Predict the 3D structure of the following.
Amino acid sequence: MFFHFLYPLNLDISAFNVFKYITFRSIIAFILATLISVIWGKYFINFMRKKQFGQIIRDDGPKSHFAKAGTPTMGGCVIVGSLAAAVFFCGNFHSLPVLITIFVVTSFFGLGFLDDYLKVLKRNPKGVSAKGKLFWQVITGLLVSFVIYKFNIVDTKIYIPFFKNALVDLGWFYIPFTTLVIVSSSNAVNLTDGLDGLAIGPIITSSISLGVMAYVAGHVELASYLFIPYVENVGELMVLSFALIGAGIGFLWYNSYPAQIFMGDVGSLSLGGFLGAVAVLTKNEILFVLIGGIFVIEAVSVILQVGSYKIRKKRIFKMAPIHHHFELKGWPETKVIVRFWIISACLAVIAIATLKTR
Ligand code: 57M
């Protein structure tokens, strides 16, 4: 609203000219989202506790998790709600990348909410079937990827870090490729969300990286100077990324060990979709493997574990995803979490550093 209703008044009130700047609106969005999520989080937790809408703990998991039974979940409503409120005030809805990202988050929020609603409120442990979830995600991904391809919002070339020139032009194959990026990102974040703060930490570091990438990719001079693809209006995704950083920090205030709330599928699926969509729209589909490295490691650990068990009838890890492996090795939960955060922060710094190495 600031951009659409206050900035046009800058001829009468010159101070409103600041609302033109992405950086200014990003900082406001960060502050707003942090305040809203910290304040709202407290009331949401109390509400979920009063209603006894708590997490059911599976009995085949680490014994240490049994104590978590009944912890309120669906905290993703607070994260995405705070993100939405901050973007409502600070966003630029003329930006197609912004509208596309909002669509992905909304669709995956709806999927996650339905899954959590069935599991937590209706006490149906199955929730939405795995096939049903994947179908919903793939349809969303294909829709978004087709629009990106059809309206040429980004080019179909794939760029890899350190190299100035494109690796390959995928042509129409860019549609399934970008669908894969968005769907994989959503599911990888979902798998990662298995310890207190383990998912939201890398979501915050990834949002910092992607926010910086969005700003430079949407800036004609900077994009040219750094030899990165320019994408019209993609800089506005910095506002959304900074809003997510704030909403994530506010959520972490409560999700830090011992967690008072979990984000639920409503959070993990939607925020994973956010990261995947922003990675595609900023032309960082490959660099995102580095930026979201923790999510990649977690997802690959599951693929390897399931593959190994199916082929060799033997496990590689004590338990997958890999955070459980370290838990069963005797690492305290907090040590696993903070060490994964450290890796994620290092990957974010390296990713940003690749901007100056093309
Ligand atoms: C998403 N959900 C957590 C919470 C969170 C194929 C297989 C790898 C699938 C995977 C699975 O079920 N993944 C589902 C992970 C769950 O967290 C809830 O789910 C939301 C995220 N979607 O917001 O609402 C549990 O995680 C713990 N938790 C915290 N703090 C948090 O801040 O402690 C979550 C958030 C919560 C809580 O205990 O209940 C989860 O782990 O299910 N399956 C697994 O991850 C299981 N692994 C497994 O079966 N491995 C097998 C094969 C299949 C690879 C093997 O290694 O041989 C593990 N998870 C559970 N039990 N719960 C181990 C068994």
